[in-house]
């Protein structure tokens, strides 16, 4: 083994053996269902300890998003997205109250995105694949530096 590989193997973040196996779950949400709530409830019902969104395609009629200027010292800028939009991206973890970000495209291809606060209602469908890292546990705890609930990863 070369010197670089030796160094990487000493660092626990770069072990060569698998740190986690992955289980996948697929579901389809129907018109009118609220995406964030449904995904959190699904993960809880399945007792998933380290769930995250692998893929999501579909459409929504509305969503509440927090924009990127949030900090401990400035108020959150929240927008209400109205009208039919395609989900072009939905990513994040589903631990505790979750941490999801979405990008939504309107009929002209204009994209808006941000932190999903809720109120993200399915228009025609939302086809979602959830992954779960079987040997990990995710929680969210207040981080003194950021002032927000941040992800905490623990090995089982």
UniProtKB/TrEMBL annotation:
<feature type="domain" description="PPC">
    <location>
        <begin position="19"/>
        <end position="154"/>
    </location>
</feature>
<protein>
    <recommendedName>
        <fullName>PPC domain-containing protein</fullName>
    </recommendedName>
</protein>
<dbReference type="InterPro" id="IPR005175">
    <property type="entry name" value="PPC_dom"/>
</dbReference>
<dbReference type="Pfam" id="PF03479">
    <property type="entry name" value="PCC"/>
</dbReference>
């Amino acid at each position: 083994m070369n010197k670089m590989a030796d160094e990487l193997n000493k660092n626990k973040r770069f072990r060569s053996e698998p740190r986690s196996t992955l289980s996948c779950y697929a579901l389809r949400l129907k018109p009118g269902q609220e995406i964030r709530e449904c995904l959190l409830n699904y993960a809880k019902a399945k007792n998933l300890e380290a769930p995250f969104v692998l893929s999501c395609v579909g459409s929504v009629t509305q969503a509440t998003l927090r924009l990127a200027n949030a900090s401990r010292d400035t108020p959150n800028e929240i927008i209400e997205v109205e009208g039919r939009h395609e989900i072009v991206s939905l990513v994040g973890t589903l631990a505790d109250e979750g941490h999801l970000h979405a990008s939504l495209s309107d009929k002209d291809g204009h994209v808006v995105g941000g932190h999903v606060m809720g109120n993200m209602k399915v228009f025609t469908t939302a086809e979602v694949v959830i992954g779960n890292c079987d040997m990990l546990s995710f929680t969210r705890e207040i981080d003194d530096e950021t002032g927000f609930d941040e992800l905490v990863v623990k090995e089982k």
